[in-house]
Design a protein that fits this description.
The complex is a heterodimer. Chain A has a single domain, classed as P-loop containing nucleotide triphosphate hydrolases (Rossmann fold, 3-Layer(aba) Sandwich), CATH 3.40.50.300. Chain A starts with 21 loop residues before the first helix and ends in a 6-residue tail after the last helix. In chain A, the strands form two sheets. In chain A, strands 4-5-3-6-7-8 form a six-stranded mixed beta sheet. A two-stranded antiparallel sheet of chain A has the order 1-2. Chain A is built from eight helices and eight strands; from the N terminus they run αβββαββααβααβαβα. By secondary structure, chain A is of the alpha/beta class. Chain B is an alpha+beta fold. Chain B has three domains: 2-98, no CATH class; 112-243, Beta-Lactamase, CATH 3.30.450; 260-385, Beta-Lactamase, CATH 3.30.450. Helices cover 40% and strands 23% of the residues of chain B. Chain B is built from 14 helices and 14 strands. In chain B, a hairpin with a 2-residue loop joins β8 (190-203) and β9 (206-212). The chains are: A alpha/beta, B alpha+beta.
């Protein structure tokens, strides 16, 4: 996998706790809960605080029942479905997340569109996977702490997605971390995996709280990697062609 | 099954405590069995209960076809695999069993639940242009889980398909996702070849969908079409959302003595229904009104009015079914109106060649005035909306 920036190197970690972030985070909240954005809506900032929005497409990969739909719901601040139902097609979720860049102090809204598709549907209908891959920026590889096989299968999953010339952020997310009593995957194994792949393993699980604290690490990590990838691409691009800026 | 071996047709049975068991074999392959607990709905009559259970069986079968396709269900090669695959239908089937959303009558009536928007022309145009731009002829705008406008071809789908697609859209919409690309089989129109149902959440409560072939991709439709066609109409959509669960625009003024109504257009197989909010404690609650409306519908359609035959009955099954239906009514004429006075409210049904109106009023309305209330209500709605 591509070298990953040190967490917190490019974006301010835990920025949602700082006072200067309130103005921005209030745009994605409604009555102390996360606002849900439909396609015709976006966070509206007052004119003097106009902020650029960057768009990314993120695919959630992982075996059936691992918690793909639940992760999308969690990241968007929606309530997590109490029953497990198979996702029988593609469902996308829009997440807006304000991020402060460490170097310039500039604030950006990340518009992350999460693409979630049930494994069985992917297998039964050939057209779904190409549709998910179209203009993709990142893949989240999910495994569940309560399902050993989903962890063992990670390297296969990741290998499937490595093309020669791809610009793709790849992150590993362990779900159901709260169910550590039933954990099938040990800390040591996770550490070994991180060393081997040079990529941090992000964790998620438990109750959804105010919709900021429990997802900030994951969303900031994802945003940082996406931003880093764009910066690398932009610098390569400007080396090749003379100084065109993206 | 035992009777079938002896050449006897048994279509349902009852338990000692009033529970009812109804079953049906589909495609000579799958038998679905529905059981209810007895006290459940049905207008108190056994035939009424049977109607709602039969409807349930049809709807469940159709949702199975919608998700999995008929081939997989009709020629079962591996039962274990089928059992696993059937899990993908559970979400829709649970929705049919739970009937969570108030005011959705389509599962029972097989008429599409509609909402009449205050400004239909603009929306109709937008749906048509959007659908065309998405290389499709089948498009529909849903507001609060009901169809606000749809293309002509959408209305030519089998009524049951329209109802089922609406149910699917409601469950997708409730999940809160922004857009979807779902493979769907049409139980009547295309049971073996899947189409793509693209759905976009325009505003919370307002979703547009198209049924299309291989193109356009979800990403392309979303990035190039949704904003172009719908952003200019955001305010019109908000007006439409403001109609709320009343389902009728402000231009229709209902008489104060109408508690709840269900209006079916028999030609187009569409329906609107609403329950009026009331703080008066002498009238039944909203939830109870919806329940009463359903019970009264079942009561009048099983006793007096023929239902529009939209059941997915195969030709070879038809003679068997009609033989038991000729039996029951026992009328030499076709009733046009009926009324019922209960302890909770008064009910009135009015049938014209084009419409069926089911009406609930408070007990305070004199029985002799019910007919006037009903005819006024019908003409008020049809005159203002052309429904």
């Amino acid at each position: 996998m591509a070298p990953v920036p040190q967490p917190g190197a490019a974006v301010v970690a835990d920025w949602h706790r700082d006072a200067d972030s309130r103005e921005f985070f209030s745009r994605i909240l409604h009555k102390k809960r996360r606002r849900k954005f439909s396609l015709l809506e976006s966070p509206v900032m007052p004119p003097h605080l106009a902020v650029d929005t960057v768009h990314y497409k993120v695919f959630i990969s992982g075996k059936s029942g691992v918690g793909k739909t639940a992760l999308a719901a969690r990241l968007a601040g929606r309530s997590i479905p109490s029953m497990h139902y198979e996702t029988t097609g593609i469902e996308t979720t829009v997440v807006y997340w304000p991020v402060k860049l460490r170097e310039s102090g500039r604030v950006l809204f990340f518009r992350l569109q999460l693409w979630d598709c049930g494994e069985n549907a992917l297998r039964r209908f050939d057209h779904l996977l190409p549709s998910c891959k179209e203009q993709l920026d990142a893949v989240l590889f999910l495994f569940s702490f309560t399902d050993r096989t989903s962890f063992d299968d990670l390297s296969n999953q990741i290998a499937k997605w490595s093309g020669p010339s791809d610009r793709l952020v790849k992150l590993v997310v362990g779900t159901k971390y709260d169910l550590f009593m039933h954990s099938d995957v040990t800390e040591r194994e996770v550490t070994r995996f991180q060393e081997e792949w040079g990529s941090p393993v992000l964790r998620t699980g438990g109750e959804v709280s105010d919709g900021l604290g429990d997802v900030a690490a994951l969303l900031n990590g994802l945003a940082e990697n996406l931003w880093h990838q764009d910066c690398v691409a932009a610098s390569q691009h400007s080396q090749q062609a003379t100084g065109t800026l993206i | 099954m035992f009777g079938g071996g002896q050449g006897v047709l048994l279509s349902s049975c009852e338990t000692e405590r009033g529970g009812k068991v109804v079953w049906r074999v589909f495609q000579d392959s799958v038998m679905l069995i529905a059981v209810n607990g007895g006290q459940g709905g049905g207008g108190g009559s056994s035939r009424g209960e049977e109607l709602s259970l039969q409807r349930l069986l049809e709807n469940v079968w159709s949702s199975m076809v919608l998700v999995l396709g008929q081939d997989e269900l009709a020629s079962v090669r591996n039962v274990e695999r089928l059992k696993r695959d059937l899990r993908s239908c559970f979400s829709l089937i649970d929705q049919l069993l739970e009937e969570k959303q108030e005011g959705i009558m389509g599962n029972l009536t097989h008429c599409a639940d509609c909402l009449v928007p205050p400004n239909p022309t603009l929306l109709q145009e937008a749906v048509e242009n959007f659908t065309q731009a998405a290389d499709s002829e089948f498009g529909c705008l849903m507001v609060h889980g009901r169809i606000a406008v749809a293309t002509e071809k959408w209305w030519r789908l089998a009524p049951q398909e329209v109802v089922l697609l609406s149910a699917l859209m409601r469950s997708l919409s409730a999940s809160g996702s922004a857009s979807c690309d779902y493979p769907v089989f049409l139980p009547h129109g295309s049971p073996t070849v899947a189409h793509r149902l693209l759905r976009f959440q325009l505003l919370p409560g307002a979703d547009v969908c198209v049924l299309c072939g291989p193109t356009p991709s979800l990403l392309r439709a979303e990035t190039t079409l949704v904003g172009r066609f719908w952003l200019p109409l955001a305010d019109t959509l908000r007006d439409c959302l403001a109609v709320g669960e009343r389902c009728l625009p402000g231009s229709v003024s209902l008489r104060p003595d109408v508690l709840a109504l269900l209006l079916i257009n028999r030609e187009t197989r569409r329906s609107v229904s609403c329950v009026r909010a009331s703080s008066d404690s002498s009238v039944p609650s909203r939830a109870r009104c919806w329940e009463l409306l359903k019970l009264f519908y079942i009561f009048s359609t099983t006793r007096y009015f023929s239902q529009e035959e939209t059941l997915c009955v195969s030709p070879e099954e038809k003679p068997q079914r009609s033989s038991c239906e000729d039996f029951a009514p026992g009328f030499s004429h076709q009733p046009l109106q009926c009324y019922l006075v209960t302890e909770e409210c008064k009910c009135y049904t009015l049938q014209t060649p084009q419409h069926q109106l089911f009406l609930l009023t408070p007990l305070s309305v004199p029985t002799f005035a019910l007919r006037t209330v009903a005819t006024h209500t019908l003409s008020a709605i049809t005159a203002a909306t052309g429904f």
